[in-house]
Fold:
Amino acid sequence: MSSAALLGAQERFGGRADERNLADPVAALVTNVPDRERIALSGQWRFILDEVERGLRTQYPRYTIPRDEVQQRGGMLVEYEWDSAPEITVPGDWNGQDPRYLWYRGLAWYRRRFDAPSAPGKRVVLHFEGANYVTHVYLNGRKIGVHEGGFTPFAFDITDRLQPTNNSLVVGVSNEKLPTGIPVADSDWWNYGGLTRPVWLLLLPAQHIRTYQIALRPENGRDRLEGRVSLGGSAVAGASVTVRIPELGVRVAGRTDSTGSMTFAAVPRGLVRWSPESPRRYRVHVESAQDTIRDQVGFRTIAVRGTDILLNERPIFLRGISIHEESFGERASTTSRHLSPERARALLDTARTLGVNFVRLAHYPHTETMVRLADSLGLLIWSEIPVYQNDIRYDHPPTLELARRMQRVHVARDINRAAIIIWSVANETPINDARNRFLRTLIADTRTQDPTRLLSAALNRTSGDGLTQIIDDPLGNDLDLLAVNEYYGWYGQWPADSIQALRWESKFDKPLIFTEFGADAKQGHRGDRRDRWTEEHQAWFYSETLKMVDKIPSMRGMSPWILKDFRSPRRYHTRFQDYWNRKGIVSETGVRKMAFDTLQAYYRRRAAEPTPK
Ligand code: GCB
Structure:
């Protein structure tokens, strides 16, 4: 186990006897899971709530839930029974599956049995696309690992722990947030718990392709592809690797170095760049002696020059919208964190009707399904980790290590998606030395891992006299583009008579985008535009803000808050909110509010302009 992961596990989970020698939860990760030989562990699992966490404590033999032992031993009372426990669907948060679980915060156990796959010579890797928030994994009664973090994948090589039939996989997931965790408990979105994303058995050749990345990096005006392939498993050094993109006449063959990696460069012939208008992707084949991976990869460049954002060397205006990972509810009670391809598609189709070319996937890495879909549809993406607001322990080294691992896994998973143009490291963080150091470490890490994309963070602090807003957060020096969440006129008074009187200045010669602005409105609540919570008010708020936006010289895009109403434990106003954040421009079931039309009209006008202002 790596020292960072070990530190995390011991500090957070007490270093119990059964937690020594656990596997590093990210060491067995591979990228491009959709193209691997795999077996889904989706479907019905048994489910036991354990609010007091007895199952995690070894001193109570009556509650050996994770060990899934013979249930009656010598007349001793055992107070659980897997086979009669209720069933729950995986993937899926528990909150949306039964009204009794809607508000549940704590530990719950899942069990599923399976036969070992017939895969002679292969490694069997148990891969979780994501589970919120701390996950304890037991196979055949033995603990194999623990993972912290709700939105990034983790995996364990279980080859040597499998029995031929009837393996018992027991997984405890707790959505209790930790004071040193990321995010902390107080966040403005629902704390969906459990195995929210798919679980797989991956069958990997003994020597396999672990990760690969390939990107367009033109040199002296000529297109040039650059990349790296890293092998995993056995005999990874000095091994042969081939990368082919037949449609571009690319074929590179070479050998890995002593660490199992090979870097390469190639000149493509007749490359058509990926863009929102034409999201062209090419079939990429990565091959090693025993393994073959195929992917669909688009190639484009992204850069900034002064206050412009350049996509494929041309200025672009980001017509965006923010989106949470939460499905439309067929009924208000059935929203879910789990986004099947159909549910992801429903969200992105609504966004496309609005006329966007950009989505901000807030406030954490979304499911890979979402990212791949946006990539195929030509939607540019801002993607972030949940380093969210004030209460993160910026001064606490293990919290920084956790953030670094999250960002590393986040970037590694999606590095071949042309759609992603911006990695963000945080949202609305306080300005102080500890936070600056924390975020600068993440920025430096991310630049090393991926020098081809823009780095940003959503800022919310500006200084000024009420009429002039000055963007002067020192982090601005480290970011490629400035991003501000601004709520003038909603959380406070309109400055002077109108938001249009507000002027924006920046200490940095960099592009600016508004990563958020918005106002709550209850769909169907109509009235005077001066009355909060009405659709008229929200629409008017949008049109005033958009007029202000048009006056900001360095403004290069926006992702208003937010596409749809989403569940939030922070929204207590019974009449209008009832635990929903109502800043959606459509309701939780997808009914448009007036502000949708306002923003749509604005984006139509923007899209018709030849180049951004
Ligand atoms: C913000 C946060 C976002 C909230 C939003 C709001 O600034 O970044 O997570 O949901 O404001 O509605 O207050």
About this structure: The chain has three domains: 3-205, 219-300, 318-608. The first strand starts at residue 38 and ends at 40. Helices lie at 3-13, 341-354, 368-377, 397-414, 433-449, 535-549, 594-608.
